[in-house]
Write a structure and sequence with these properties.
Elements: H1 29-48, H2 53-77, H3 89-103, H4 106-124, H5 126-131, H6 144-180, H7 187-214, H8 219-239, H9 257-263
Helix pairs in contact: 3-6, 4-6, 4-8, 6-7, 7-8
The structure holds iron/sulfur cluster.
Length: 264
């Protein structure tokens, strides 16, 4: 599958994982593999019907054995000896320290505050949002345009809510790892992750603005959330000045701009 020339290598590394809304499902190895695993899981489910638990555990063990063999093969291809590999303790300690530092970084804290404020707003308005159709899956019967806008804003905010924090932490960790281990540095990865976080913030801000228009009486609390998110956005741009110009495979490649426009 990975050798398919129609795929865009690494496109899934800097996307937002919202495959339902993605213009590149036909060019993404991750998407194709997920579809394939679903099909395999369904086939397994049908095959497993009627099997005893011990037969099922045996099947799982042979899958794991195959996976370990595949992993060894990959390591050999990369010139690593799978039998001799031992964790480098210094590396492990530094990695742990970096993780701890990342957790208390101001950008991480701010993105967690954004989660808290958003959850509080959604929780305290749950009934109103539900009554107005934000969480309904069936097509709206009344005030269609307004309900669709409401649903879309809710979906966007909730989709990126945790992802912003995850991507910021990954970017911060990447940056620190690059500083600590310059000989193994992957400079682009931190910027790529920061860019995905920034895109999530851009879209979330737009969605909050839509909610503000739909609920004028909520202007003050929504403005507070937007100010926090806007500040986080500015600070992230400052911490990762190259992030906005990072070119994500596929999404920022002019060769695919038509496909992007057609499907967005
Ligand atoms: S690139 Fe698109 S299809 Fe692939 S994982 Fe990301 S969102 Fe999903």
């Amino acid at each position: 599958m990975a050798e398919d020339p129609g795929l865009i290598p690494g496109i899934y590394n800097y996307c937002d994982r919202w495959c339902e809304r993605c213009a590149f499902t036909d060019k993404c190895l991750n998407y194709k593999m997920e579809q394939e695993s679903r099909r395999e899981a369904e086939t397994r489910r049908i095959e497993n019907e009627g099997k005893s638990p011990s037969e099922m555990w045996q099947d799982l063990k042979s899958t794991l054995d195959e996976t370990i063999e595949l992993l060894k093969e990959i390591m050999r291809e990369r010139g690593l000896d799978p039998e001799k590999m031992e964790p480098d303790e210094d590396y492990m300690i530094s990695e742990k320290e970096i993780k701890e530092e990342t957790k208390v970084h101001p950008l991480t804290r701010m993105s967690l505050s954004y989660i808290t404020m958003t959850e509080e707003w959604f929780n305290s308005h749950a009934r109103m949002l539900e009554e107005q159709g934000m969480f309904d899956e069936k097509p709206p019967e009344e005030d269609v345009e307004r309900t669709l806008q409401l649903r879309d804003a809710g979906e966007v905010i909730r989709w990126y809510l945790y992802q912003i924090n995850v991507k910021i932490q990954r970017a911060l960790r990447g940056k620190k790892m690059n500083e600590t281990y310059p000989e193994e540095a992957l400079p682009d990865d931190a910027d790529g992750s920061a860019k995905v976080a920034l895109i999530g913030m851009d879209r979330s801000l737009t969605a909050w603005r839509r909610l503000m228009e739909l609920f004028p009486s909520e202007e003050t609390p929504i403005a507070d959330i937007m100010i926090l998110l806007g500040t986080l956005r500015k600070k992230t741009e400052k911490e990762f000045p190259e992030a906005r110009t990072f070119r994500r495979p596929g999404f920022d490649d002019p060769r695919y701009s038509d496909q992007l426009k057609k499907n967005s």
